[in-house]
Amino acid sequence: MSESLTGMAPTDRVPVEVAVGVLVERDAQGREGRFLLTSRPEGKVYAGYWEFPGGKLEAGETVEQALRRELQEELGITIGAAHPWQELVMDYPHARVRLHFCKVFDWQGEFQMREQQTMAWQALPVEVRPVLPGTIPVLDWFAYERSHTGPTHQA
Ligand SMILES: Nc1nc2c([nH]c(=O)n2[C@@H]2O[C@H](COP(=O)(O)OP(=O)(O)OP(=O)(O)O)[C@@H](O)[C@H]2O)c(=O)[nH]1
């Protein structure tokens, strides 16, 4: 919506807080490997785009609580500790969101696609496409951590 209709510049919008889980496999030496992406379900904005699983905080929830609930609801897994990693504010036409990315190394339970989404364990460069705009910076952070050069995903 344009500024004249809302009376607010895009950057004045109060961000919606979103907890995002970056599930990462680790080997016996603790080295990080593949990470989990899920596709956004039909009926949501950006349906079919690949992202890290998560969702909006409900009233009174911490990021970790919201993440635990969302991953239970969406994927049927129970996560262990959520390690705060990065934060990012994204301005979309539909919303301004503050994404709280947490790494998760431990979880229990079988993965169930409870929202008819699809999941894929990925490495760099990511093979699934398209990826959500808010996912691209995360791939850059992984590239930095892993000394990966070249593209991180397909345009
Ligand atoms: N889950 C998730 N959301 C992201 C990522 N990157 C990103 O920009 N977003 C944005 O953050 C917001 C999360 O909302 P959502 O629709 O997934 O959350 P939700 O499950 O609580 O939605 P609901 O309102 O349908 O219940 C969306 O605007 C989405 O576009 C990401 O990597 N993971």
UniProtKB/TrEMBL annotation:
Family matches, as InterPro entries: MutT-like (IPR047127), Nudix_hydrolase (IPR020476), NUDIX_hydrolase-like_dom_sf (IPR015797), NUDIX_hydrolase_CS (IPR020084), NUDIX_hydrolase_dom (IPR000086)
Keyword terms of this UniProt record: DNA damage, DNA repair, DNA replication, Hydrolase, Magnesium, Metal-binding, Mutator protein
Pfam families: NUDIX (PF00293)
Domain spans labelled Nudix hydrolase: 15-144
Domain of life from the UniProt record: Bacteria
SUPFAM superfamilies the UniProt entry points to: Nudix
Any GO BP: DNA replication
Annotated catalysed reactions: 8-oxo-GTP + H2O = 8-oxo-GMP + diphosphate + H(+); 8-oxo-dGTP + H2O = 8-oxo-dGMP + diphosphate + H(+)
Entry EC no(s): 3.6.1.55
GO molecular function: 8-oxo-7,8-dihydrodeoxyguanosine triphosphate pyrophosphatase activity; 8-oxo-7,8-dihydroguanosine triphosphate pyrophosphatase activity; 8-oxo-dGDP phosphatase activity; 8-oxo-GDP phosphatase activity; metal ion binding
EC top class named in words: hydrolase
UniProt keyword annotation of Hydrolase present: yes
Essential cofactor(s): Mg(2+)
Keyword DNA repair: yes
Sequence similarity: Belongs to the Nudix hydrolase family.
Protein name: 8-oxo-dGTP diphosphatase
Organism: Kinneretia aquatilis
